[in-house]
Write a structure and sequence with these properties.
31% of the residues lie in helices and 9% in strands. It has 450 residues and is of the alpha/beta class. Strand 1, helix 5 and strand 2 (174-177) form a beta-alpha-beta unit. The relative contact order is 0.18.
């Protein structure tokens, strides 16, 4: 062995020995448990964490999906209960800036919502998607020749046959999920996100007619669903939402976009599969026939068909029609990928790195503060500019808490977390981390020379 290699190896061993020296800085338990613990990976302050951490989270520590800590603090049906102040500030700032039209709240007695006299649902002031008024920023059509796939109302127990079918056929779709359904079906949600790597989007918290809600209720329906998805996907912020019943207008659309950065998605064909089995609803043969007609028909514009993972019949209709998509020359694509961009606001997809952001606050209009200035976080004043990012509860056991805010600096500084975790970007390494890094560098040089 050349003398220079021997010297480098001796130096590496010395560095490793120094890094392993006893000290009192450990804050984790060395006792070997009898079974695998819930947190099986290294703590974030462990020197190996920076070397082997997963690359698909924002660096925050979130409660395990399905755990009591994960589900704590979310509303039942009253979505205005415990609303984080940052969301209210963001809404007020958008209203003050004239970005949210002052349209009257619609009313409904079970049918399509209606507006007071003088407000035309098809006019530019209201432009109700329920009445098929198209805002150019909404997504209604897929590109020519593309079958834009998505499903509403999950996750549910009836979702699993669909998920297994998607897995078998190696395709990804967009799931517009109801927030409260995620709470009740954590395993199905985890399968969709982690196993299928499908795209997760927002379908509100309780599935209401959105135009019949106050501004504060709209905030709650969208915000709580976004936050639950954010805290269950390693910090990803959904980019798309679909209004239940397709019920949106210029006011609701503006709140979704200006406060939460959400793009509204509708559809250009409706199976009405949700009504199968109801006395005045459609039938499975009719749904099958409609799907066949559209898939074998013209390819301009491309298809965005309203389908649901709601019952065995709604799922079964899609499964039966699926072979026709390829047979008729369609390109199968998830709706969230139709624009060719990222699936989430802060991540390309379910596995790519996540830029730390949070839910529903305005970034400061002035230049971003340095990453080291922990007190200079995003402003939520009325003079702020909307960006669709904001304050959230990452790492907290209670999602209502807003005490831990993201620092949206230009360098991408990570959040501070309750476990004293090392910052993902820019924070100094501890002395034992530095020693280990040095030793590994020396070893690499030694082997390169050997």
């Amino acid at each position: 062995m050349p003398s220079v290699v021997r010297s480098l190896l001796l130096l590496a061993l010395a560095a490793l020995s120094a890094s392993a020296s006893p000290h009192d800085l450990h804050d984790h338990d060395h006792a070997a448990p009898r079974a695998l613990p819930g947190r099986w990976y290294h703590h974030e302050d462990h020197p190996a964490y920076a070397l082997f951490r997963r690359g698909d989270t924002d660096g925050a520590t979130y409660p395990a999906v399905g755990s009591p800590e994960w589900s704590a603090g979310y509303p039942d049906t009253d979505v205005t209960k415990g609303t984080p102040q940052a969301w209210i500030d963001a809404l007020n700032a958008a209203v003050k800036a004239g970005k949210v039209p002052n349209i009257p709240v619609a009313t409904s007695t079970g049918g399509n919502p209606t507006y007071p006299q003088g407000f035309d649902p098809n006019g530019p002031e209201v432009c109700s998607a329920t009445y098929k008024c198209r805002n150019k920023e909404d997504l209604w059509d897929a590109p020519d020749g593309v079958f834009g796939s998505s499903f509403d109302d999950g996750p549910l127990p009836t979702s699993m046959p669909l998920y297994e079918f998607l897995k078998q056929n190696n395709v990804i779709t967009t799931h517009f999920m109801i927030g409260s359904n995620i709470l009740w079906n954590a395993d199905a949600f985890t399968y969709a996100f982690e196993t299928l790597e499908s795209d997760i989007a927002v379908h509100t918290w309780t599935h209401p007619y959105m135009t019949t809600l106050s501004n504060e209720q709209v905030i709650g329906e969208l915000g709580w669903t976004m936050e639950l998805i954010h805290n269950s996907t390693g910090g990803r912020l959904p980019k798309y939402w679909r209004p239940p019943y397709g019920d949106s207008d210029e006011r609701v659309r503006a709140i979704a976009k200006e406060v939460f950065g959400l793009t509204t998605v509708i559809w250009n064909q409706d199976t009405e599969d949700w009504s199968i089995g109801e006395s005045t609803g459609t039938t499975r043969p009719k749904v099958d026939a409609s799907l066949k007609e559209w898939i074998t028909g013209p390819k301009s514009p491309g298809l965005i068909i309203l389908e649901h993972e709601l019952t065995n019949n709604t799922v079964g209709a899609f499964m039966q029609a699926f072979p026709l998509i390829a047979q008729n020359g369609w390109k199968f694509e998830s709706v969230a990928r139709l624009d060719g961009g990222s699936v989430y606001q802060n991540s390309d997809d379910d596995t790519d790195d996540v830029t730390p952001q949070a839910v529903g606050v305005f970034a400061a209009a002035s230049p971003s503060p340095p990453a080291s200035d922990a007190s200079s976080t995003a402003s939520s004043s009325s003079n702020s500019k909307p960006t669709g990012t904001g304050t959230v509860t990452s790492g907290s056991s209670s999602p209502v808490s807003t005490g831990s805010t993201a620092n949206p600096s230009a360098t991408g500084a990570a959040q501070d977390h309750k476990n004293g975790a090392m910052s993902r970007f820019g924070s100094p390494m501890s002395w034992h981390s530095a020693a280990l890094a040095t030793s590994l560098s020396v070893l690499a040089a030694a082997f390169a020379l050997s």
